[in-house]
Amino acid sequence: MIYPEFSEFRQELDKENPFSNLYYLDSGECFYIEPVFYTHLKGFKDLREKEFPRIIERMIEIVKKNKKVIFTGNYECPQTLTSDDFIILEINDITDPLQIFVEDKSRGSDYGD
Description:
Blueprint: E1 10-12, E2 21-24, E3 30-33, H1 35-47, H2 52-66, E4 68-71, E5 87-89, H3 91-95
Parallel strand pairs: 3-4, 4-5
Antiparallel strand pairs: 1-2, 2-3
């Protein structure tokens, strides 16, 4: 997958994790972006366009600080399998501290059968 928001970083193919994009910063830190995380990220881009650059900046700050990060769609069941030295974060781990919120109004119908 091509994620244009991260095109400035070197991307490598990880044969062990073919569905997750692996990126490297020039200083050597690396991070994975799982497809579900990217879907959530795009939702923020669509709904909070003005704040979106802050989200990307914060992601890169976290990568620089922690060196190895997996941005996952589900912390309890990440799609990317790596060594234990990676930290695993969901979209809300990035956006909540920035106080950028999107209310999830999706719910089942109120009408019975």
